[in-house]
Write a structure and sequence with these properties.
8-stranded parallel β-barrel, 805 residues, 10 helices, mainly beta
Length: 805
């Protein structure tokens, strides 16, 4: 057997041994079986000394915290859950929240623990609740959380009941409170967990293993492990970390001994040396795995698995950003966290879908606006190769808010995708002495937990003030202010600069005539906010300046709320390069043509379905391409040949005649690309296109399916807008519908949705333990129905905490 095979076999054997040795450590899903009540339960006002004990009304309300409370009339929901998106649009509700009502809601979850769990460390984990919440456990208030984007963890070891005792979690969620000025949803919208660990264990987020390059091909992984002991006596332990590559080949191992003191968290430090690892990059995102264990007398007490990547990051004041010492222009987008039909309750697979769409466009960086993200989003960025600007929500140096900042850095600092921290976005104090002092302190807090990444902030003013927050930044983040790039660089030649937000252009997918009365922006990349620029100008300003590290366009996807430049009846944004469903707008192909060097890009807008009274009238035609030359033909007759313009793209005024409009792209005189739009016939049939050719039958996998209308020749009809009805077999559930129309008021939950300019989307989720295939059918009046069968891959559901009725 070769040495490689031997090491691989040993690595697999060690991993098998690890996972069997730590069966006592579990992380179980709590997502299933929550009882939900929408509305508030009003606590009676107490005016007398004995009222809490004697008032029947008061007892009924206070008993909501207890296992004996009768919640049979409450709805059962599975997390993630966003109750706002389930509601109706209302013009009297908050415009920023997309005119959805939020309000108050209550959740309850019951579970049992066995006697075998006595003496273990038991922890409830909540990844995200929007917005403010109060948590009771077995009748006791155990947490109040004031940020909808930070996770929190509750030690219930000393309060838990065992055997026949029922444990009850009760949560009151106040979603009327707002963290931001965008759609934030309502409810427990991220995952929940119950962690069971040995009394001597590793703290949640308690392993830091971020590789650092020493010289040439030599790297170290400084390991920091935070141990806890909720037992009764000090324990001598061994702490060991092992590094495995993607093939589970053991690469390195190191261990130290320590004393785990009682109820006193302690940090243990040691280092692993690694030679010549494969580097993580946006084109080749290679991940390694660090397995960290606590052992006593040879027995494994606890384990955490941490993914990591070997890469270097560097900014230069004159030449921009470098990844692994190679120049890389940041081709980034900003994004909020909601999706059509789902609100903010995003299944893991939809995060991956959204990241794949951005990679398809040529995006290499993702700014999270303006809050810490779901952990699953970072996992997707790690795996797909997207750099992440990780952003703090609140610019505040009080203890509570510094604790939120600390949590973000400790949770996310192992992700190789995270390349910078942002401490705020467009704060009023940014251009003041106070802003400088606050920024300085927040940066110092970050450096306590991570010295490997620079710190920035997104500033839309105050850059030239005598004292301002930029003076405390490793990298200066500029929002818009396009005309100030050069003067700021000249005035501050040592400053490293990135555009943290740019463009803010408006497009309505599939529309090519702006009509302000109907809240429609054309899709020719002409309309933009007064503070911004078109996509073409915004990118040109960045690419032509070597000192600019690149930038983040506002935004990658549309999002609910903030329907600038309009108001009601518009209910979601117009800024997206892709719409709320992830369907591309014109800007998608503009940037794909500018950013993708590995493929030949050519796309034409608009469609070629114009009414009869348009015959002979000029139609503006736009070709989006990375070719050298573009030939345009109408019904096989030459219109003209133009030299391609990589910034402005190419346009023609073409008298409309029904038929075929075709573009051909050339490089070095040879044809490399071809694209056509045709005048189609009447709607004849529907078409269903799944995002993938399978779905996992674990009860959590989700998939968007695109719906199109075709004519009798099988051609897509880009102007179709008919209502489509869906039916599905029992192996899956429809969890959301959307069509990307920012002016649509159709429900986002249900089994029907209109096409909007030729497209709509239905999102399905597999049912637990499903097998065979998912069968989905789409129908529309007067059209041929479409049915698809999606194979189900048998996959075990997540280990979960059984529901107690």
């Amino acid at each position: 057997m070769s040495d490689i095979l031997k090491h691989s076999f040993i690595g697999l054997l060690l991993l098998f041994t690890f996972h069997n040795a730590v069966a006592q450590s579990e992380k179980l899903s709590l997502d299933k079986g929550w009882k939900f009540y929408q509305g508030d339960i009003i606590f009676p006002i107490i005016t007398g000394h004995n009222e809490p004990q004697n008032s029947e009304e008061a007892r009924k309300v206070w008993d909501t915290r207890l296992a004996t409370y009768n919640d049979n009339n409450w709805r059962t929901v599975t997390l993630p859950h966003d109750w706002a998106i389930e509601g109706k649009l209302d013009s009297t509700e908050n415009i920023a929240q997309g005119y959805y009502k939020r309000g108050i809601g209550w959740y309850r979850r019951k579970f049992r623990l066995s006697n075998a769990d006595k003496g273990k460390y038991l922890e409830l984990q909540f990844d995200g609740i929007s917005t403010n919440c109060t948590v009771w456990f077995n009748g006791m208030i155990v947490k109040r959380n004031w940020c909808g984007y930070t996770s929190f963890y509750i030690d219930i070891s000393s309060m838990a009941k065992f055997e026949d005792g029922i444990n009850i979690i009760t949560i009151r969620v106040d979603a009327d409170a707002m963290d931001g000025w965008w759609y934030e949803g309502a409810g427990i919208y991220r995952h929940t967990w119950l962690a069971k660990r040995s009394s001597v264990h590793i703290q949640t987020n308690g392993v830091y293993a971020n590789p650092v390059k020493e010289n040439y091909n030599n790297w170290t992984i400084p390991i920091e492990v935070t141990t806890e002991n909720n037992g009764n006596t000090k324990q001598p332990v061994e702490i060991e970390s092992s590094l495995f590559d993607k093939n589970n080949l053991l690469i390195a191992r190191q261990s130290v001994t320590a004393i785990a003191d009682v109820l006193k968290p302690d940090n243990v430090y040691f280092t692993m040396n690694v030679h010549n690892p494969v580097l993580w990059s946006v084109d080749n995102p290679v991940l390694y795995k660090v397995v960290t264990q606590i052992k006593k007398d040879g027995n494994v007490l606890d384990e955490q698995i941490t993914k990591c990547g070997f890469r270097t990051i560097r900014f230069d004041a004159n030449t921009g950003f470098y990844l692994n010492d190679k120049p890389l222009k940041i081709q980034g987008v900003c994004n909020h966290q909601d999706h059509a039909g789902l609100g903010v309750a995003i299944p893991d697979a939809i995060w991956a879908f959204r990241m794949r769409k951005l990679k398809e466009m040529g995006v290499n960086a993702y700014r999270i606006a303006h809050n810490p993200p779901a952990n699953e989003l970072l996992d997707a960025c790690d795996s797909l190769g997207l750099l992440v600007l990780d952003e703090n929500r609140n610019f505040n140096i009080s203890d509570d808010y510094l604790a939120q900042l600390k949590w973000m850095v400790k949770r996310d600092r192992n992700h190789p995708s995270v390349f910078m921290w942002s401490i705020f976005n467009e704060e009023p104090l940014q251009g003041s002495l106070q802003g400088y002092q606050m920024a300085r302190r927040m940066q110092e807090k970050i450096k306590e937990y991570d010295t490997t990444r620079p710190v920035t902030a997104a500033m839309n003013g105050g850059l030239f003030n005598e004292q301002n927050a930029a003076q405390a930044m490793d990298v200066v983040g500029i929002n818009y202010q396009h005309a100030l790039y050069d003067s700021f660089h000249t005035t501050n030649p040592a400053a490293k600069i990135i555009s943290t937000e740019t463009s803010s252009a408006f497009e309505t997918r599939g529309e090519y005539v702006t009509d302000m009365d109907k809240n429609i922006s054309d899709s020719y990349d002409i309309q933009f906010a007064f503070w911004g620029a078109t996509h073409r100008i915004g990118w040109k300003l960045l690419e032509e300046r070597p000192y600019m590290a690149g930038g983040f366009i506002w935004t990658g996807f549309d999002y609910h709320g903030e329907p600038t430049p309009f108001r009601w009846p518009s209910v979601n944004s117009f800024f997206g390069i892709l719409d709320l469903c992830g369907f591309p707008k014109t800007a998608f192909w503009i940037h794909q043509a500018q950013w993708r060097k590995d493929i030949d890009v050519l796309h034409l807008v608009p469609h070629w379905n114009w009414p009869a009274d348009s015959i002979g009238k000029n139609i503006k035609v736009m070709a989006l391409s990375n070719a050298d030359e573009i030939k345009l033909l109408l019904n096989d007759k030459l219109i003209s040949i133009q030299k391609a313009d990589k910034y402005e793209m190419n346009t023609w005024q073409v008298p409309f005649a029904p038929g075929k409009l075709e573009a051909i792209g050339y490089k070095n005189g040879k044809e490399v690309s071809r694209y056509k739009v045709e005048t189609t016939g009447a709607p004849f049939a529907l078409q269903l296109i799944p995002d993938r050719n399978y779905i996992n039958g674990d009860g959590t996998d989700a998939m968007p399916i695109t719906v199109k209308a075709l004519d009798a020749k099988g051609r897509e009809i880009p102007t179709a807008n008919m209502m489509v009805h869906f039916s599905i077999n029992t192996t899956a559930t429809i969890i959301g519908v959307g069509n990307g129309n920012p002016n649509s008021h159709e429900p986002e939950k249900g089994n029907q949705r209109s096409l909007f300019n030729g497209l709509t989307q239905v999102i399905i989720q597999s049912n637990e333990n499903s097998e065979g295939y998912v069968e989905l059918t789409a129908t529309a009046d007067g059209m041929q129905a479409a049915t698809i069968k999606i194979p189900i891959i048998k996959k075990a559901a997540k280990a979960f905490v059984p529901v107690v009725d």
